[in-house]
Amino acid sequence: MEKEGLDSALNLMNRRGMIMPSAQIYGEVGGFYDYGPIGLKIKKRIEALWRRRLVEGLGNLEIETSLIAPEQVFRASGHLETFADPVSVCKKCGYSHRADKMLAEFYERRNDKAKAEAAKHANLNELKKMILDAELKCERCGAKLEDVEMFNLMLATKVGSLGSTQSYLRPETAQGTFLDFKNIFKIYGLKLPIGIGQSGKAFRNEISPRNILVRMREFSQMELEYFFDPEEKDLAINGKKVDEGVFSNEITFASTAGGGDESVVGKVSISKLMEEGHIPNKLFGYLLYQENEFMKALGFDDDAYKFVELSKDELPHYSKGNVDLEAKIGGKYEELAGTAYRTDFDLKNHETLSKEDMHVFNNDKKVMPHVVEFAMGLDRTFLALISNSLYKDDKRGWEVLRLNESITPYDFALFPLQRDDKLMDKSAEIRDALLKKGYSVFYSYTGSIGKRYARADEIGINRALTVDYDTLNDGSVTVRDMLTTSQERIKVDSLL
Ligand code: GAP
Question: Residue 188 is part of which domain span?
Answer without folding.
Answer: 38-64+170-390
